[in-house]
Amino acid sequence: MEEVPHDCPGADSAQAGRGASCQGCPNQRLCASGAGATPDTAIEEIKEKMKTVKHKILVLSGKGGVGKSTFSAHLAHGLAEDENTQVHQSGSGWSPVYVEDNLGVMSVGFLLSSPDDAVIWRGPKKNGMIKQFLRDVDWGEVDYLIVDTPPGTSDEHLSVVRYLATAH
């Protein structure tokens, strides 16, 4: 998988796809076209959905295999003090899978046809899924949202931070 430059200006920047750091990036053409930018309506929808989430916690690392998912799961269990893997669609969005009464989980893995399916996505597809999880999942009133991110230091991390920053 190709790396996104560490000094990436981001898809919403005026320099998107045009800066020196964009040379050789697999998303350069997409960013330069403006197609990778997030419409204001999506930001507003995310902001509205996140109003009922008190604390947002991102678990990040530039490297895979360091225990991000394990840490995220233990942190969630620790904060929740109990698996049905069906995601349901309702008028207010996807319903998370509840592991316990007070612990809901949403994962790309729940949306796959088989648990053996691999997910190999590039920037725009990953960013779209992140946006969809923040905008379309009906989290309800919760104290914590823990985001277990994919490994790396690429655009999706910047996107999550940008989306959540709009919701304070």
From TrEMBL:
* Record has Transferase as a keyword: no
**One function term, GO molecular function aspect:** ATP binding
Could you tell me which InterPro entries the record lists for this protein?
Mrp-like_CS, Mrp/NBP35_ATP-bd, P-loop_NTPase, YlxH/NBP35
| Superkingdom of origin organism | Eukaryota
Q: Which Pfam families match?
A: ParA
Keywords assigned by UniProt? 4Fe-4S, ATP-binding, Iron, Iron-sulfur, Metal-binding, Nucleotide-binding
Which terms under GO biological process does the entry name?
iron-sulfur cluster assembly
Q: Is Hydrolase found in the keyword set? A: no
PANTHER family of this UniProt entry? CYTOSOLIC FE-S CLUSTER ASSEMBLY FACTOR NUBP1, NUCLEOTIDE-BINDING PROTEIN NBP35 YEAST -RELATED
What's the name of the protein? NUBP iron-sulfur cluster assembly factor 1, cytosolic
